[in-house]
Specification:
Layout: E1 2-13, E2 24-25, H1 32-42, E3 48-57, E4 63-71, H2 77-86, E5 99-120, H3 130-143, E6 160-164, E7 178-188, E8 196-205, E9 208-210
Parallel strand pairs: 2-5
Antiparallel strand pairs: 1-5, 1-6, 3-5, 3-9, 4-5, 7-8, 8-9
C-alpha cells in the first residue's frame, strides 16, 4: 500500500454526530469516513480501498450556528420500484410542501491534512497492478480532477483539495491536545442491507488524530 497526503479545506463543515436526533451538531474534527469519501470522490474503483491513517487539523477549531431550510423526506422506495417496473411514476419532491427549518452547530474555516493508504485488491482486477491505480490517483489529484466534488460532511459544504507530495515541508498542525470522545470510524457493510456504525475513542494530540485500523481492538461496533 502507498500512502498519500491531501489537504482539504472549506468555509464550512458538518460531520454530524449520530446521537443528535433532530438538530445537526458536528464533531470537533473531521471523521475518518468523511475523509475516506473525499479520496473516493477523486478516485474510486472496485479494485481499490482507501484507509485513512491520520487527520491533522490545520486551523483553530471554530463554530457557527446556522438555521437552514431542508427537505423533510426522501423519494419513496416503493415509488422508485414502481417506476422501474412500469416506466412511469411519481418521483418528484415538492420543496414548498415539504420544507422544514433545522438549526445546526457547524465548523467554520476548516482545513485538514489527511494521510490515507491506497490498497489494491488484486482479485478484483487480476490483469492490473497497484501502480496503475496509484498513477491514476496522482494524475487526477494533481490536476484538481474528481468524479464528484469532495465535501466536508454535508454536500453543500464543498471541499477544496490539494495533493501534498512532501508533507514534511508543510506547516505544523495546531498545537492542541484533548480528548474528543467516541467518534464514528466508518460503517460496516458486511450486511449491505443494514450497515452498522463502528466507533473509536479519538484523541487530538498536538493537532492530529491517529486513526486505528478497521480490525483494531480500539474500533468497536
Amino acid at each position: 500500500m502507498k500512502t498519500y497526503c491531501m489537504e482539504l479545506s472549506g468555509p464550512y463543515a458538518c460531520f454530524t454526530r449520530p446521537e443528535m436526533k433532530v438538530e445537526r451538531v458536528s464533531y470537533d474534527v473531521m471523521t475518518p469516513s468523511a475523509a475516506r469519501a473525499c479520496f473516493e470522490a477523486i478516485l474510486w474503483k472496485p479494485a481499490i480501498r482507501w484507509h485513512v491513517r491520520r487527520i491533522e487539523v490545520l486551523n483553530p477549531i471554530r463554530w457557527i450556528n446556522l438555521r437552514r431550510n431542508e427537505v423533510a423526506s426522501v423519494v419513496s422506495t416503493r415509488n422508485v420500484e414502481t417506476a422501474m417496473k412500469t416506466g412511469k411514476g411519481d418521483l418528484g419532491l415538492y420543496i414548498e410542501d415539504d420544507r422544514q427549518q433545522r438549526a445546526g452547530l457547524f465548523l467554520r474555516d476548516v482545513a485538514y491534512r489527511v494521510h490515507a493508504d491506497l490498497e489494491f485488491l488484486n482479485e478484483r482486477d487480476p490483469a492490473a497492478n497497484s501502480a496503475k491505480y496509484e498513477q491514476m490517483f496522482e494524475r487526477r489529484a494533481s490536476k484538481g480532477q474528481c468524479v464528484n466534488q469532495p465535501y466536508l460532511g454535508c454536500r453543500e459544504f464543498a471541499a477544496a483539495f490539494r495533493l501534498i507530495e512532501q508533507p514534511e515541508s508543510e506547516p505544523q498542525p495546531i498545537a492542541e491536545t484533548r480528548e474528543l470522545g467516541f467518534m464514528l470510524h466508518d460503517l460496516d457493510f458486511s450486511n449491505a442491507s443494514d450497515p452498522q456504525p463502528r466507533f473509536f475513542r479519538a484523541q487530538l494530540s498536538q493537532g492530529a488524530v491517529a486513526v486505528p485500523r478497521w480490525d483494531s481492538q480500539e474500533v468497536r461496533g
